[in-house]
Design brief:
With about 750 residues, the protein is mostly helical. Helices cover about 65% and strands about 5% of the residues. It folds into five domains: about 5-150, no CATH class; about 160-285, no CATH class; about 305-450, Serine Threonine Protein Phosphatase 5, Tetratricopeptide repeat, CATH 1.25.40; about 510-615, Leucine-rich Repeat Variant (Alpha Horseshoe); about 635-735, no CATH class. Helix 20 (about 415-425) runs parallel beside helix 23.
Amino acid sequence: MSEEKQKLYTGWLKGTIAAIKKFSFYPPGHPAQATAIETPFDFLQSILNSQGRLVVSVMENRFVINEDTVPEDFTHNNFYSLFKSGAIKSIEIRPEITSEEFKTFLNYYAKKMTDRFYQKTLEEFINENGINGVFVNQLHYVAVSQKQEVISKTEKLRIDLKAQVAQSLKDNPQILRDILFGGELSPRELKDKYQLDVPLDKIAAVVQEEVIQMSDQDILNLAASKIKKELEKTLSQEGQKKEELEALLHLMQSQELKTLFPRLEEVLSRYGLVNRAVLKKGIGERWSKGEKIVEQINFWLNAQSLEKVQTQQLVNLAENLLGLHDQDVSGFMIEKLVASLESEREVARQVAGLLLEHILSKAQAQNREFELNLIQETVLEDIKDLKIRESAYQELARVGARIAIALIKRKKYQDLRETLLAVRSRCHKEVTFSADIQKASLEFMAEVGNSEIARQLISDWEQNPDSELGRTVESILRLLETERVVEELFLHLERQDQSCQTRIAGLLVHLQDGTLKHIESVINGRLHPSAGPASATLNADTRVLKSLIQVLGQIEDPGAVNLLGKLKNDLDTGIRMDVVKALSHHPLPAAKAAIYLLLKDHDPGVRKEVIEAAVTNPDSRAAAALINHFAEDRSDRRLVCSALAKIGGEKVVDFFVCVLTGQSRTDFNLSGKVDEESRLFALNYLARHLNSDVLIQLQNYLETQKKHLLSVFKRDPLESSIARLVQGSVSKSGLPIQR
């Protein structure tokens, strides 16, 4: 079988089994059912498109699909159990099947899971519901022991004696039922009725092995089938028999096999309907194994000190529990272990947590859907309870982190979102959770949001960010918000096209705390490089740093402004220029104060960028910062004058009066002679912004000039222009000239 085929077949089986389990939780027609069949139906369509049909059967405890044996073990689920019992020999699905028909088809298995007395055959169910694309128990080919053989209802495998009997029981479940619930059978009866010419002890041994592998539910189903068949032929005068069998059938609807077994054995023995030796030995051996494991688990749960608990013993217990293949026992113990996480005793909580981790790990390796789903549902449901006890939550968070990782690896993102919301809500310092709960929640997030998981999530998100899957993955990335997630996002930011960069940058802005922490480490590494390979990763190249600056420019947090300010003395002029641009567009007022510090930059291009930025949405400090720069740096005076003219205002008018007249004011810090170009700019600006105060100051200036003893020798070249401006304005306005 090719790798592609194996992937398709395994994917279809996993998806189908998971969907049946999901169906058992919801009634037909529930929206959750439509979601559950999406994955298996997609795999089914791929198989049908490439091969024209899907034929599935079971041989040697393995599923066989389109003549190929699937190597993975799928033996512990309801889909397999109906093949195992012989109720179904083969299923053929053809291209005409619709998703609605496929959903209806899977509901048959869900019905069998939830109702142990549901006796309708799959053929009857398909005919009743008008499913056109599914055919049951057709003659088909399967792979057996390296060669192709035709398997029908009557043909027997001739491999060895034991396999022959076992296969006969699979092909004819009525044999198993009649051997267990039909009283003693003679070798002649087995040969004549079932074509089994095999020594009776061999048959008994195989039947006992089958019973050991069967679940309690399987045995109850066989017993119920036998009782119903017996009731059909019970005569009306056999009132007591009829009454007892009906009462027993009623009890089977509500009681487990262990509770019911003494009464079951008593009633069926009375009417010769049970092979006590075979049934009791098989069940007893399985039950004794289960009881021994339960006792061992209880022993360790009651241990007085964790030092006495050996890890390997817990690993072995988990392996043995799953080795029972008994969902009743494993389900009971998983629920007990989860409940023990809320124990008052610390040792019990720790042992329960460790055991659950080992069971989870083994169940993942063995593809045990029942145990995986049960652990997932019980643990994650408890984690979402915001009122759960602190000690219990700490253990739940540790186990829950492993479950969350498993769900993400299996791309079951939707199942995880609510749990992450509950954990994230406990991480914030502002909420009223204890420091230990916050610590456990942060550790949960850190473990789940590791680099490997982050890479998978980001890859799935980038493939189709606008799809439902993409939006779900993005919400999970937002909730995780770990350092590793942020690091991986920055790595992707460096190598993506512009549209992807915009999306990633937007996500990084949302992951504010993690993003600021990561960028701070990069900037510190650049400002204070140390020897060795570790600093090489922090000493980011210019292209990377430019991306970081763009992200900082969008984060509305004082920390982002402070980090941008750290780069004001960077050796790279382009970096400093990008810092100015980021600060100029930053929404926080503190960014303006930070940008004015760059007016002292030694590069004129950077200073020009700052001056232009100060004009864009100027604040109350803009004019003062530019006026101060005018006084300190003569080289930028022309740019400063133009910028101040655009800002305008009373302070700017007063400044230009001082520039023009040479008046001294402490807040302007003007010293020495101002160049004529700046004075001329001031004159032109004041000509457009004249008012009575300006006219009076200019008149006073002219009067002072006339009275000055040296004015004849040092005449102001702009004096006549100022005089004309004053004279013209006074004549036009009718204001008197001050004497």
